Amino acid sequence: MTTTPVPGGGGLGSRLFARRSLDSLVAEPEGGGLKRAVGPIQLTALGIGAVIGTGIFVVIGEGAALAGPAVVLSFVLAALACAFSALSYAELASSIPVSGSAYTYTYVTLGELVAFIIGWDLVLEYGVSVAGIAVGWGGNLNAFLDSALGWELPEAIAHSPEDGGVFNLPAVLIVLAITAVLITGVRESARVNLVMVVIKMSILVFFIVIAFANFNSGNLTPFAPEGQDGVVSAAAVIFFAFIGFDAISTGSEEARNPKRDLPVAILSSLAICTVFYVLVSLGAVGLASTSQLSGSDAPLAAALDEGAGITWAAALLSFGALVAITSVCLVILFGQTRIFYAMCRDGLLPRELARVNPRFGTPALLTVILGGLISILAALVPLSEIVKLVNIGTLFAFVLVNAGVIILKYTRPDFPRSYRVPLNPLLPLLGIGFAVYLMLDLPATTWWRFAIWLVLGLVIYFAYGYRNSRLRN
Questions:
Q1: Is 473 within the bounds of a domain?
Q2: If I label 81, which of 32, 252, 365, 366 is the partner at 20 to 30 A Cα–Cα?
Q3: What is the pLDDT of residues 309-336, one digit of tens each?
């Protein structure tokens, strides 16, 4: 495959911002690429698997504390904020069906340096996210064992040193188990995820049915005690429960029919998650009062217990959260391996790591290395503060993906697209606006940590990536 920079001068600036050739990138991925093995159902399940995690089991209580019963509207508003970026992801994923997601899209639209920055950012975002999710999985495992069997794992092997333990064994085991599944192949990974999605969605359907059968309309008064400000504040919190649909785009190269299936999977997964979020939140506020929901660490279980008298609800919801976290962990780690793989294949990181295992059709060596590092991180390293970097990294990617759609509209209007963002550039600009608004609301410490990580990335880029880039060699 040939990779050519956009014509321009030979100065340092033109080399730093040289762009991948869109036509050659789409025509033939380096090394033959990954195995195209998944269809629209599996891709949609990947999106649902990444989005519906512990957020739906916990965030309703946080949102209800801010907006009251109007938290239902907060879910709709948060979904709308994500929808603008989802439209942009859908266009780029179908037009550039190659691994790398926002990293690859940025390489085509904004050039190599910006692409490396966003790729480096996403490597951190996904890796820290998996480690944090794994730690949460261990906590939910103990909650399930306590509610179902009345006993818990010893503190020494159930918590990291940050939380008074010695070694978080459950977090390590779940990361290693998911790593093993990912190595075996994308089709197998997608099947495992599909099973988990069916289980957690079934539990949510059970909650919705019970909630509406015992609905108390009196709980909806007053509907919005804090007015519009409360609804917007709750939407800002709930927004992060929708993040994850972008992970579908990391599997572009493994979709059997990416031009058709990727837009369908991205948009339908977000739509399905929104419907479930709205129904679950409406059922929750109809079952229990705002104070009951906001005063519980497990608001859905509390709603079933106090509103419907189902005392064994805690065990069921704990199991649902456990399955939900597992599927999120699988999809996010899958996404990280594909982004890292794309960066290695482009020579910005060691190309040896981009080898595809001929038996499994996956970057097995890279998956083992990343899974091992993340398991160590989950077992030993304090995560309470660094996990905040996940939010800013995701929002930064949203900004660049929306910007990429606008740029391609004017620089390559002739390039064939199976899906186009309507009202471009208006809707992508709205996506940028929502992302920037939420980024500015993050604390200064998050910005400083983000800047330090990017500086480290720039050092690696100029020491290694710039000299070994396939674009110049």
A1: no
A2: 252
A3: 887 877 888 888 889 889 999 999 999 9
Helix (H), strand (E), coil (C) string for the chain: CCCCCCCCCCCHHHHHCCCCCHHHHHHCCHHHCCCCCECHHHHHHHHHHHHCCHHHHHHHHHHHHHHHHHHHHHHHHHHHHHHHHHHHHHHHHHHCCCCCCHHHHHHHHCCHHHHHHHHHHHHHHHHHHHHHHHHHHHHHHHHHHHHHHCCCCCHHHHCCHHHCCCCCHHHHHHHHHHHHHHHHCHHHHHHHHHHHHHHHHHHHHHHHHHHHHCCCHHHHCCCCCCHHHHHHHHHHHHHHHCCCHHHHHHHHHHECCHHHHHHHHHHHHHHHHHHHHHHHHHHHHHHCCHHHHHCCCCHHHHHHHHHHCCCCHHHHHHHHHHHHHHHHHHHHHHHHHHHHHHHHHCCCCCHHHHCCCCCCCCCHHHHHHHHHHHHHHHHHCCCCCHHHHHHHHHHHHHHHHHHHHHHHHHHCCCCCCCCCCCCCCHHHHHHHHHHHHHHHCCCHHHHHHHHHHHHHHHHHHHHHHHHHCCCCC
Residues 70-104: tens digit of each pLDDT: 999 999 998 988 999 999 999 998 888 888 888 99
Distance CA 63, CA 37 (A): 39
425 within a domain of the structure (yes/no): yes
Angle between helices 227-238 and 71-95 (to 10 degrees): 40
Angle at which helix 186-213 crosses helix 258-287, to 10 degrees, equals 30
269-273, 350-354, 413-417: which is most confident:
269-273
Q: Cα–Cα distance between 257 and 277 in angstroms, integer?
A: 29
The span from the CA of 158 to the CA of 166, in Å, is 8
* pTM summary value: 0.88
Domain span at residue 237?
A: 39-468
> Please, what is the end-to-end C-alpha distance for the chain in angstroms?
12
Number of residues that this document lists for the chain = 473
Q: What is the mean pLDDT of the segment spanning 133-145?
A: 80
Q: What is the CATH number of the domain that holds 102?
A: 1.20.1740.10
Give the closest residue to 332 by CA, choosing from 184, 123, 160.
123
Q: How many whole angstroms separate alpha carbon 333 and alpha carbon 378?
A: 13
What is the pLDDT, as a whole number, of residue 83?
A: 93
Number of domains in the chain: 1
Distance CA 207, CA 313 (A): 9
Q: Is residue 412 part of a domain?
A: yes
